[in-house]
């Protein structure tokens, strides 16, 4: 993927994020971050991002019934959440986000937490030379030019 040159962003690193994709997670993760930053939100809880990953894929999964492959579980997550949360197939995106950001249902929280296993780490791994275990500590400052830093904290009920 060729992106325009920037003095403030390492475009080569961002391009490399999308050079190897076996699932849709990276695309939906990035889209969710862009949506939130456009709203001037710069400290973003992962749950907000995971919620938008689901709401952004909602229409594609439910109307086009696209299969993203066996290892991509986003379509399974959408279908399960729709049942657990009693959401409609044509539910408004803002309602989906609100429900997912505020739900106390353990099954839904568990589904959303699934995305924390790899997506946040692999997305910014291009900025670091170490493995996944180095991503959190290396992301704590922006000397590597990464788009965001990670915190280990995860939401619970």
TrEMBL record:
Protein name stated in the entry: Uncharacterized protein
Source organism: Flavobacterium azizsancarii
């Amino acid at each position: 993927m060729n992106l325009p040159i920037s003095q403030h962003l390492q475009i080569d690193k961002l391009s490399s994020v999308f050079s190897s994709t076996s699932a849709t997670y990276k695309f939906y993760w990035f889209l969710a971050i862009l949506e939130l930053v456009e709203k001037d939100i710069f400290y973003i809880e992962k749950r907000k991002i995971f919620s938008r990953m689901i709401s952004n894929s909602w229409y594609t999964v439910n109307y086009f019934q696209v299969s993203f492959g066996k290892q991509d579980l986003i379509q399974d997550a959408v279908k399960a959440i729709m049942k657990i949360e009693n959401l409609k197939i044509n539910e408004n995106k803002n309602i989906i986000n609100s429900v997912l950001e505020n739900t106390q249902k353990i099954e839904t929280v568990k589904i959303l937490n699934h995305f924390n296993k790899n997506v946040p780490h692999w997305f910014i791994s291009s900025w670091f030379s170490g493995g996944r275990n180095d991503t959190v500590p290396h992301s704590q400052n922006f000397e590597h030019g990464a788009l965001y830093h990670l915190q280990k904290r995860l939401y619970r009920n």
